Amino acid sequence: MTKQSRVSFPFVLLRFWFWRILWLWLLIGFWIFIMQLIHCSIARNNEMVRLALSWIELMPGFAKVALGGGVLESSNVTGFIAMSYQHPMVQTVYMVFVISVPTRLLAGHVQDGTMELILSRSVTKNQVYVCACILTLIGTWLLVAVMLIGTVTGINICNFEQEFSLWPFFRGSVFCGLLLAAAAGVALLAAALFGNRGKAVGLALAFFIVNYFINIIAEWWPRAKFLGPISLFHYANQSKILFDSAWPINDTCVISSVLVITVIVGGIIWNRRDLPL
């Protein structure tokens, strides 16, 4: 294929993949939005908040850390609402998107043999990778935006007696987005490494699970506190994000660095691979 026959950018491929993943995005976005409304409606009832916090206090230490740690200790409505930003169930639903999309678009098509058909068109390997990055990362940030919109909508619908500052929730959503984007970067890297989708999903999922439990253990067990900086979740401490006046620049730089490095390294590996496998 001559260089002149190459298109500047494969918008047809981008649009085709967009429609393929839209149903998953809509399903997860709807679930996240409804969960925020439900959480705000619970937070409106002070008696239910106290009951929930007292029930959480009876849990083992590692379970309390997983549900919110320092955010729960604040015992205020802002902290209770923001608890949903790092709830294990919410994080798991997000991971379904950030892991399944890039591994399906890259490793999945290689495994199915359809990547050969895609590359036989006027598309380069770099363009294929860029399309996967755009859909994964923008889709992830839009899901986080849906979560923030759900929180704002829930606060306005429930008519809380107290006034709320939306700034803590914005900060929380930014760090949630950075954390998920970094996880998506790892998934892109795994998809670039393997021609088997199962292996790519396994590597990305293992990275997420190991980081998650290292953070829980480091927060719960004082002797393991030195392990905290190893985990990405260590740099997305909701208590610090919500209630500290200064923006945590160092934590932002660490998570952003992981995102940039994994995306760039994944692109280099993908470009140098012999495709199709």
Give a topology summary.
Elements: H1 11-44, H2 46-57, H3 61-67, H4 70-73, H5 77-82, H6 88-112, H7 114-119, H8 125-158, H9 167-193, H10 197-220, H11 238-243, H12 249-272
Characterise the protein shown here:
By secondary structure, the protein is mostly helical. It has a domain at 3-25 and 93-149 and 163-272. 75% of the residues lie in helices and 0% in strands. The protein is built from twelve helices and no strands. The chain has helices at 11-44, 46-57, 61-67, 70-73, 77-82, 88-112, 114-119, 125-158, 167-193, 197-220, 238-243, 249-272. Helix 3 (61-67) crosses helix 10. The longest helix has 34 residues, at 11-44. The chain is globular and about 60 Å long. The relative contact order is 0.14. The model is unreliable at 1-5 (pLDDT under 50).
Labels describing this entry:
single chain, 277 residues, mainly alpha, 12 helices, 0% strand, globular, disordered N terminus
Query: What is the gyration radius calculated from CA atoms?
Result: 21 Å
Mean of pLDDT: 84
Report the portion of residues in β strands. Answer: under 5%
User: Which runs of at least 5 residues are low in confidence (pLDDT < 50)?
Assistant: 1-5
Sheet with the most strands? none
Q: Give the beta-strand count.
A: 0
Percent of residues in helices comes to over 70%
Query: In angstroms, what separates the terminal alpha carbons?
Result: 20 Å
Estimated structural class: mainly alpha
Q: Which term fits the overall shape?
A: globular
What is the chain-wise order of helices and strands?
A: HHHHHHHHHHHH
Total of DSSP H or I helical runs spanning 4+ residues: 12
